User: Fold these one by one.
Assistant:
Number 1:
Amino acid sequence: MAQNLNYETANSFCYNDNPDFCVKYGHLYTRDVAHSICPTGWHLPSKDEWNVLFTIVGGEYIAGVMLKSPNGWSSNSSNTCNNCSDKYSFSILPAGGKILGSYSFESDYAYFWSSTDYDNSTSYIVEFNDNSVGHDRVSFDNTFGSNSGAFSVRCVMN
């Protein structure tokens, strides 16, 4: 998908509980919902599938430049990203997330769930930020509860 999933369901959220943010960024989903929310014929990408995408666009150290939308990032006063070309029309926007009940990092970060867990207590998350030309692999601790974090979802066709 070339945009964030924007389907309202239980345990999905609009940033700051404001529907305007869902129009702009799509919904944020908890881990459990993210693992089951993709439409029929689609699925939540694994860590390996994210890595294939990064390889196709030139490597993980340039993926941010190639995949991020040039608009909406807070890296400067004009809300444009100096390191973004969106060459592949993947249009990553800085939707932020909901972490331990608080909305954080809108206009600074984009977080995406993957279907891969590091272990029983940690999920693999893909992160993009406004100052990086690449991307980061981060983990989210599920021991806070399955609904303690909510992030964006991109689905991949089966």
Number 2:
Amino acid sequence: YFENPVIFYDIYTFTSKEDESKKVNVAYMVYNSFDAAYDDKIKEAFDLFAEVSPIDYMILDFRYNGGGNVASCCYLSSLVAGADALNGGQPKVFMYSRYNDERMVEQGRNKSDYTTYKKDEFDADAAMAYNFPLKEIYVVGANDTASSSEMLINALRGIGKKVTLVGGRT
């Protein structure tokens, strides 16, 4: 039995404190493991978010997320970052891979190995569909939050997204 790691997602709409005539949309998703077999479930959540756009804030609940597949982390990060990740057709760097010298030689890697944000199944049209004008991204963390969860936080911060970690220490 394999559990779908996309436990819950929804959109909450509030009245703006600054202007009571405006609404604020908050996307919320509980995600318990970066498992590429369920990336289509992440896309389902983001399709719902796109229907209600603009999304002003996003909450990613990673309290019980111990990490997982790096490709799935890159996929989710790309959806959150939207067009900012694609950088006008030149995808930004998502992560650099650096192993010990022996492993680098063994794998035929060099010190400049890196992975960019998704550009294949996450093309320019998809980037525009998920190009939410996010004011801030909140990540709910805890002691169990690790690995790919932390990578997502740092990758989004690395391209200038405002990411606030709330809850426990990862």
